[in-house]
């Protein structure tokens, strides 16, 4: 089990060696029917200076495999010295070795117990244990500024959160949308159980959802880790059949309910021993998986094991790294969101840097995606991208429209059935983005302007342009926007943006624009 404030998981790192341990011959056998055999775990030296004579606590490997975060307990180099419960330290992978760890300093480290939970794929967003404001919030978040410094941690709000145990674990999936937690609640099956929460449009998190009886047992389930594929789950348990006191297991999510999983599979003798194993993580980019192994009764024997991923049978599914830039931000941080075009499932989200507009995210390998940028003072168009030929990595740049009084937003993705005001389903993402903007900015009033090409009778073109503008208005009202904030007008073919001399130009003229009347 893990402590909500800190964990007595001492970490020792060894030079490359072989460790002979006793284990069962079959991971499915019960703990009471031990069939002994010798197996080997390869321990490799990640670098010098990671460990001291003091406690080093739960390591976190960044998704790119280039950063290692961990905490030291009651260490002289902590912010409050030897009486400081726990500070976070950072080491970087340089030429295949971990650099000498550096105290992360303020505002991440205080005179209390500090621990890092997760880091985003771009390295600019971290989750931290506890509240930095003195509230009951169990988790905080911080963003890296342009100068490389971290922002003051802010509480994360999880609706209906409570925990009946003094122990808790948290893990933010690489998609920045899914928060796993190991806590004890009224519907838990015994000790700590695994729960999941999802980010909402207001930036807060949904009530914890129990992840079902396939994963959870009467024992303790803890140290969850969800791969970037969104399906592959690793966790530790004292309740499932295994080798020792606590073993690490692997399972696959089977549907979108988050309660149906494949039967947990013991990670086997490459990972688990008769002792205590937990805190397994594997980056889709790194060549190694990391976990802790040791003896439950003596925290000083719990060590960090680094195992080559080529030695592991249960690895995540293929993922794609997406990098890009959002233009037109005007020093605003916006959210880039990605959906599976076929299923509509939210795959991942990332936050841009304020000045450069850069973003990075990791998603499961799918055929095509819908990607968009969303902010309080910009309109980010939805864009469909074919990923069928992408193997590992791709770049997608986006353009955002800053909002201003009198400004126009041309809605290229509001598509209608030909010669009718009937909206096609491809239009819905942009309609939702408009509604989001107006809800976040209650002073905005807009005018929806409909336009056509030069084909048809004048009265028919004028009516069609009005009807299309009113259709959009109707959808926005259904999405929660007050009717008093929306005007409509139809211009027919009176205001072309291109000569009507080709089908391509005619298509450009068949458009809808939104004018910002007040902001």
TrEMBL record:
PROSITE patterns recorded: OMPA_2
Keyword annotations: Membrane
UniProt domain OmpA-like: residue ranges: 403-519
Domain of life: Bacteria
Protein name, per record: OmpA family protein
InterPro entries: 6-blade_b-propeller_TolB-like, Bact_OuterMem_StrucFunc, OmpA-like, OmpA-like_sf, WD40
């Amino acid at each position: 089990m893990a402590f909500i404030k800190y964990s007595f998981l001492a970490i020792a790192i060894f030079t490359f060696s072989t460790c002979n341990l006793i284990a069962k011959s079959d991971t499915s056998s019960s703990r009471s029917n031990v069939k002994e055999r010798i197996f080997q775990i390869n321990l490799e030296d990640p670098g010098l200076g990671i460990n001291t004579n003091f406690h080093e606590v739960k390591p976190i490997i960044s998704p790119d495999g280039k950063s290692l975060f961990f905490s030291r307990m009651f260490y002289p180099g902590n912010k409050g010295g030897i009486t400081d419960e726990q500070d976070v330290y950072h080491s970087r992978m340089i030429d295949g070795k971990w650099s000498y760890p550096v105290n992360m300093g303020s505002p991440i480290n205080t005179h209390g117990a500090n621990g890092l939970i997760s880091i985003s794929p771009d390295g600019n967003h971290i989750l931290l244990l506890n509240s930095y404001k003195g509230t009951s919030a169990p988790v905080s978040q911080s963003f890296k500024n342009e100068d490389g410094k971290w922002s003051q941690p802010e509480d994360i709000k999880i609706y209906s959160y409570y925990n009946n145990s003094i122990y808790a674990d948290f893990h933010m999936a690489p998609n920045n949308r899914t928060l796993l937690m190991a806590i004890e609640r009224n519907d838990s099956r015994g000790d700590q159980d695994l729960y999941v929460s999802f980010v909402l449009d207001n930036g807060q998190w949904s009530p914890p959802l129990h992840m079902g009886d396939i994963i959870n047992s009467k024992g303790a389930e803890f140290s969850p880790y969800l791969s970037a594929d969104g399906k592959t789950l690793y966790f530790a348990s004292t309740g499932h059949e295994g080798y020792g006191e606590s073993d690490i297991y692997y399972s696959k999510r089977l549907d979108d309910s988050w309660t149906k999983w494949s039967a947990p599979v013991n990670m086997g003798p490459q990972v688990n021993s008769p002792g205590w194993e937990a805190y397994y993580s594997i980056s889709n980019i790194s060549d190694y998986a990391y976990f802790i192994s040791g003896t439950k009764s003596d925290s000083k024997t719990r060590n960090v094991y680094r195992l080559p991923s080529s030695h592991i049978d249960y690895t995540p599914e293929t993922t794609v790294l997406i990098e890009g830039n959002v233009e037109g931000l005007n020093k605003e941080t916006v959210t880039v969101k990605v959906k599976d075009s076929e299923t509509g499932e939210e795959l991942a989200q990332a936050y841009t840097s304020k000045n450069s507009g850069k973003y990075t995210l990791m998603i499961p390998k799918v055929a095509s995606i819908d990607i968009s940028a969303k902010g309080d003072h910009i309109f980010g168009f939805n864009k469909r991208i074919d990923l069928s030929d992408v193997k590992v990595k791709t770049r997608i740049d986006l353009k955002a429209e800053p909002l201003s009084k009198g400004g126009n937003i041309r809605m290229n993705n509001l598509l209608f059935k030909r010669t009718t005001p009937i909206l096609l389903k491809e239009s819905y993402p942009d309609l939702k983005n408009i509604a989001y903007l107006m809800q976040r900015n209650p002073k905005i009033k807009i005018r929806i302007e409909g336009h056509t090409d030069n084909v048809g009778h004048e009265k028919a073109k004028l009516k069609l342009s009005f009807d299309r503008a009113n259709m959009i208005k109707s959808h926005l009202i259904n999405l929660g926007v007050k009717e008093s904030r929306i005007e409509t007008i139809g211009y027919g073919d009176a205001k072309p943006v291109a000569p009507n001399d080709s089908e391509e130009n005619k298509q450009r003229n068949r458009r809808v624009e939104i004018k910002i009347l007040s902001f």
